[in-house]
Specification:
Blueprint: E1 4-7, H1 12-23, E2 28-32, H2 39-49, E3 53-56, H3 62-72, E4 76-79, H4 86-91, H5 93-114, E5 119-125, E6 138-139, E7 144-145, H6 163-183, E8 186-192, E9 195-196, H7 208-220, E10 227-230, E11 236-238, E12 240-241, H8 242-253, H9 256-259, E13 262-266, E14 273-275, H10 276-287, E15 293-296, E16 305-306, H11 311-317, H12 325-339
Parallel strand pairs: 1-2, 1-4, 2-3, 4-5, 5-8, 8-13, 9-12, 10-15, 11-16
Antiparallel strand pairs: 6-7, 11-14
The protein binds nicotinamide-adenine-dinucleotide.
Length: about 350
């Protein structure tokens, strides 16, 4: 029976995958420094589900990382811990670098030393392709469109690291791929678009679907002030529900040795592309309320459009998303309603 180590196991993605494994009776170790809002709630929830092994440690400390890998000898490592907000990376570039770039190198070295045969799956980001402004964008009433890419953006796009977050995740992404080339590790990179779902304690800085669900619920309950939208709200992402993301990691772990050294663009695909304005209109109709918001300048280096071409993931991993965005956002609204909205 495989043993799984999940860094960032008390975060949004990590706790969803951990829960799925625990429910299947598989052994899981979570590793987290508990810095994220909601990490303690997620750990409590995982323990109630049956999590037995949690290690409080910091990716930035090689000894923490090496000792968890050495002690638990995982067959699969899901590397999801990280500094996740673009805004924080601009305020604290050193923290961002040490967590994402150095932290990933620490983990790769620990795996190379103790379990070089393990599957190693890394959550990278579509931000490694930069802000894509040199491509043609068109505007409709509710969204941006990139007419050159009707099927989404492929992995063959040139890399262009922008912002400290883009640089630190991009460096990690390249190290992970290179450890397959240079050291024969079974490493695979997933370049994610936006994800959402239960256990995402969204903040203003990260987790836009959850955050807008929370703000909209507060307004529907007569408690919220107008919220802010950065840019004109026509920014598009192909959103992926956490259940589909958990399927991806668990099924891909068994294929890591055949897919090693490859990067995959991952998202909900063209059918699940969604702009902020379209999300807000959907929430207005679900909550029977007229939402009030204030437009702000665009965030630095924010892509106006990113929809992943998921052809490579479909054919190499046999994976495709199953949850359409409307039913997923309804589920998310329910989760935010039950777990409280943060202002
Ligand atoms: N959620 C998304 O939409 C999205 C999109 C693109 C990429 N990603 C990537 O996926 C990964 C997981 O994202 P998430 O949404 O679950 O984020 P999250 O913030 O919910 O989870 C990250 C976890 O890492 C932990 N952590 C942070 N710094 C650490 C450190 N130094 N040592 C140990 N643990 C540390 C945090 O406490 C948190 O529990 C991240 O690497 C992120 O960059 C996420």
């Amino acid at each position: 029976m495989s043993k799984y180590l999940i860094t960032g196991g008390c975060g949004f993605l990590g706790s969803n995958i951990a829960a799925r494994l625990i429910r299947s009776g598989l052994p899981v170790v979570t590793f987290d420094n508990m810095s994220r809002v909601g990490a303690h709630e997620n750990l409590k929830w995982l323990r109630e589900l049956g999590l037995k092994e949690h290690v409080h440690g910091d990716l930035r400390q090689f000894d923490d990382v090496a000792s968890v890998v050495r002690a638990h000898q995982p067959d699969a490592v899901f590397h999801l811990a990280g500094q996740v907000a673009m805004t924080t990376s601009l305020q604290r570039p050193r923290l961002d670098f040490e967590t994402n770039a150095l932290g990933t190198l620490n983990l790769l070295e620990a795996v190379r030393e103790s379990v070089p045969q393990a599957a190693f799956l890394f959550s990278s980001t579509n931000k490694v392709y930069g802000d894509l402004t040199h491509h043609r964008h068109e505007e409709t009433e509710t969204r941006y469109v990139m007419p050159e890419f009707p099927g989404g953006l492929p992995e063959t796009l040139p890399l262009e690291f922008q912002s400290p977050y883009g640089c630190s995740k991009g460096a990690a992404d390249q190290y992970v791929l290179d450890y397959a080339r240079m050291f024969g590790l079974n490493t695979v990179v997933f370049r994610h678009s936006s994800m959402y779902g239960g256990r995402q304690f969204a903040t203003y800085d990260q987790g836009w679907i959850g955050w807008f669900c929370g703000q909209s619920l507060l307004q529907a309950q007569g408690r919220g002030e107008p919220f802010t939208v950065s840019g004109n709200g026509k920014q598009v992402r192909d959103v992926l529900h956490a259940d589909d993301m958990a399927d991806l990691y668990i099924s891909a772990a068994a294929l890591a040795s055949t897919c090693r050294g490859q990067a995959f663009n991952i998202g909900g695909g063209v059918e699940n592309s969604l702009s902020i304005i379209e999300l807000l209109r959907f929430l207005e109709s679900e909550l029977s309320t007229k939402l009030r918001w204030v437009q702000m300048p665009p965030r630095a280096s924010d892509q106006r459009f990113f929809v992943a071409d998921i052809t490579r993931a479909r054919s190499a991993l046999g994976w495709s998303p199953k949850i359409d965005w409307r039913s997923g956002v309804r589920k998310m609204l329910g989760w935010v309603r039950d777990n409280g909205c943060r202002l």
